[in-house]
Amino acid sequence: MVSPVSGPKYLAVREHLRRRVTALPELTLLPPEPVLCAEYGVSRITLRRAVDGLVADGHLVREQGRGTYVTRPAIRHEYRESFVHRIAGFNSVMSEQGAQVGTKVLTQRVVPVPASVAVELGLEGTADVVELERLRSVDGEPNHVAHSFLPALLYPGAVEADFSEGSLYDYLRREYQADLATARIVVDVGTAAPDEADLLRVVAGSPLLVVRTTVRDSSGHPLVHSYSRLRPDVSQVEFEVSVGGRA
């Protein structure tokens, strides 16, 4: 019996299987396909789609002549944005750790502000924003797709700037003396759309970590809103909390 999960049936099977295999010892063999199909009440095609996602995410391994067995996803990098002593973006923090950060700009344009972003940035619905979408990699492995939105009136030059390397936050400080003082971060879970799956080299529908960040100045005025959609098999999110000005 599969617990109800919204979306296609294979996603429900995959989520149930994911919980199941995380409780099993590493190298445990899964039951044969016919047994699992009968257990979950699904076709072989549906079961294979569910198992494909877990293989892509590093929870399972298929081996010819042996079957499918449990493994453990490798957490190879931490996704870090430091907000304790300074606002430092992914590029700066990861580079300081010695990682090779790659960036491919996918979208860079001025657009009418989306409704959800207008709320985060405190903008009128008629305002324009600079939309920046980037594919970020670490040591050659796709890590996440980052979407950033900046008020076009505040940062008009951002639509022409070169963001194929370096930090967006450093650019805003350097070119606009931006007072990046505080940040609010929200983390939730999403699934990879087909276009994202191609970029991140995962199966469509695979789970993604979603990190939403709104950066404000010292007076509390919002300056930048971003959300990043991360592969959980190659990244983890770390928070550092400072109380009373002490790390």
Automatic annotation (TrEMBL):
> Which GO terms of the molecular function aspect are on file?
DNA binding; DNA-binding transcription factor activity
SUPFAM superfamilies for the chain: Chorismate lyase-like, Winged helix' DNA-binding domain
Any Gene Ontology biological process = negative regulation of DNA-templated transcription
Task: Tell me which Gene3D superfamilies the record gives.
Answer: Chorismate lyase-like, Winged helix-like DNA-binding domain superfamily/Winged helix DNA-binding domain
Highest rank taxon of the organism: Bacteria
Q: One Pfam family for this entry, by name?
A: GntR
Q: Which InterPro entries match?
A: Bact_HTH_transcr_reg (IPR050679), Chorismate_lyase_/UTRA_dom_sf (IPR028978), Tscrpt_reg_HTH_GntR (IPR000524), UTRA (IPR011663), WH-like_DNA-bd_sf (IPR036388), WH_DNA-bd_sf (IPR036390)
State if Transcription is listed as a keyword. yes
Cell inner membrane recorded as keyword: no
| Domain called HTH gntR-type: residue spans | 7-73
* Keywords associated with the record: DNA-binding, Transcription, Transcription regulation
Name the chain's protein. GntR family transcriptional regulator
Give the organism the record lists. Blastococcus tunisiensis
Which taxonomic lineage does the organism of this UniProt entry have?
Bacteria, Bacillati, Actinomycetota, Actinomycetes, Geodermatophilales
